[in-house]
Write the structure tokens for this entry.
Amino acid sequence: MYRACGCKYGKAQVVSFRKEGTGISVAHASASDEKKDGEILHSGQNSGDFKRRRISFPYALYGGLGAIFVVLLFTWCTRRGWSNWVSYFFSVNVGATLFFIYDKLISPFSILRIPELILHAFSLSGGSPAALVTQRIFRHKTRKPSFFLVQWSIFIVQLIILVFYIYFRR
């Protein structure tokens, strides 16, 4: 006979079933929990394990692919006779556009999504105009106020820097 025991950790609900007399228990955790090394880390717990993790796979994968794409496109543009500034901003903006479109296309399937940090890195490195236009056209991440605020903040700071650069260059 199995006996159900319920425990609540923050927002996560954990239910364990124990077989009487055997000591065998099976735990079921909610979807907001994370598994690491065979144990369940609950999102409501204040555990230092979340902070000590190394760079996860999506960050390394998409960060590396983005850097390689930008470098290859930059090299291709400069060999065509474009100036370094134009080549750089063209390659970063094309990369930001492609990453936003790709993330929008895979979002309904919950496949390996592009982390927001990578999308913000493209914007921060100079791709904010293309990121904002792509975000508006494809309606990607428009319901997330924190993402929207960071994108616009990056764009406004870059615009202020550009205006000061042009003004003080004379």
Observations:
- Residues 57-169 form one domain.
- DSSP finds four helices and five strands in the chain.
- Residues 34 and 40 are 6 Å apart (CA to CA).
- The chain has a mean pLDDT of 76.
